[in-house]
Amino acid sequence: MYKLLSHNDLDGVGCGILAKLAFHDQVKVRYNSIASLDREIEYFLDNNQQDTFLFITDLSPNEKIEKRLNDYYNATGNVQLLDHHKTAHHLNEYEWGKVVVEDENGYLTSATSLFYQYLITQGLIEKTNSITEFVELVRQYDTWEWEKNENHQAHRLNTLFYLVSIEEFEEKMLERLKSSEQFDFDEFEKKILNMEEEKIKRYIRRKKRELVQTAMGEFFTGVVYAESYHSELGNELGKENVHLDFIAILNMGGKKISFRTIHDHIDVSAIAGEFGGGGHQKAAGCSLTDEAYKQYVAQTFHIEPIPEDAKRNSYNLRFSSFGTLYKNLKKEIFLLYSISDFDWVIEKNKLPLDQNFTSFYEAEWFLKRNYQAWLVKDEVFVDYLMGEARKIRQQE
Ligand SMILES: [Mn+2]
After folding, report:
1. What CATH number matches the domain at 207-298, 3.30.160.60, 3.10.310.30, 3.30.750.200, 3.20.20.70?
2. Cys staple from 113: which of 82, 130, 139, 349, with CB 3.0 to 4.6 Å?
3. Cα gap 230→233, rounded to integer Å
4. How far is the CA of 157 from the centre of ligand 1 (A)?
5. 3-state SS of the chain: helix, strand, coil percent to 5?
6. 124-178, pLDDT tens digit by residue?
7. Taking the CA of residue 102 as centre, how many other CA atoms within 13 Å lie in the half-sphere pointing to its CB?
C-alpha cells in the first residue's frame, strides 16, 4: 500500500492525481494545509502497519516530525519526500528527502514535476503526452512561468481547480489523462472559465482601491485584505506599485498572511519566516500570529488607501516636457521634471527637494515611497499650469 500526503493547492493535487494514475486503488491520498501536515504525519506514524510506503509532496514537516520520519525510514525504508520550497532545503540531508528548487536545465520545479520525474525513473508510471502536458501546465502555474510565456492554459487550469471541489477536479483530470491524447478543456469548462476570469478582473480592480502603503523596517510594503485570488492579486498589485518591495495579503477569517513580490532582490520566504511561515522567494505565507497581527493589522488599520495613478490622461503623463504632477493625502503637490536626460528634480509645493535623481523612474520611486503621491488627473494638471501662467503674466 501507498499513502500520499500532499498540499491542498493545484501543485499538491497534481501529485495526488499522478499517484492515482500510478497506483490506482493501492494508494490513499490526503490533501493538507501547511498547518495540518504535521498532525497527519503523526497520525500515520502512530497507526499504520509499517508496510505502507509514505510519500510527502509539496509540503515539509517540522523538526520533531522530521526525526520521527527518519526513524520510520530507518526501520522500513518506506518514506519519500519531494518538495521544491526553498525553506525545506535542509531535508536533503536525509536519504528520504529530495528538495529541488531548480532542475539541472535551470527550470524551476514544482512538486508535480518532481513527482512525475520520480515515478518515471522508478518505472511506476507510463509517460504519455497528455500527462506530460498536464504536469507542465501545473509546473508553469506554480512557478509563475506561465506569465512570461503567456501560457494562459496554465492559469486557466488553476482557475478551474478553484471552481470545483478537489474530488471533482481529481475525477475529471484522471479520466481525461487516461483517455485523451492531448490535454484540453471541454466546451462547458471554457465557458465557465471565461465568466470566472471576468469576475477575477473585477475583484482585483476593487482591491486595487483598498491597498494601503506602509514602511516595515527596511521595506516598503502594500497591505490589502482578501480571501481569494492571492496569486493574481499579489502580481497585479506588485506590477502597479513597483515602488513597493512586497505585497502582504491578509486573510482575516483564515488568520493567514500571504506575501508576494515581483522583485528579484526581495525574498518573501524570509519575511514569512520571521513569523514561523515559509515558501518561495516570490510567494510565501504564514499564520497571522500576535506579532504579525500587530505589525500588519493594528499598525496599518488607520492608514488611508493611496488613490490610483490617473490612467486616461493626455497631458499629465510620465516624461512630459511640462513635468509630471503628483499629489498626496496631505494635499501636498509634487512636480517631477528634468533639467537634462540624467538630471531629474522633484518640486514639493513648488520648492525643489535637495535630492537629485538620474532617471525619471528613480525620482518617481522616491516620491512614491516617501510621500505616497499619485499621478493626478489632467484637470488638476491643467489648473496647475494655468495658475503658473497667470502668475507669470501678473509679474510682467
Ligand atoms: Mn508547489
Report:
1. 3.10.310.30
2. 139
3. 5
4. 14
5. 45, 20, 30
6. 999 999 999 999 999 999 998 998 899 999 999 999 999 999 999 999 999 999 9
7. 6
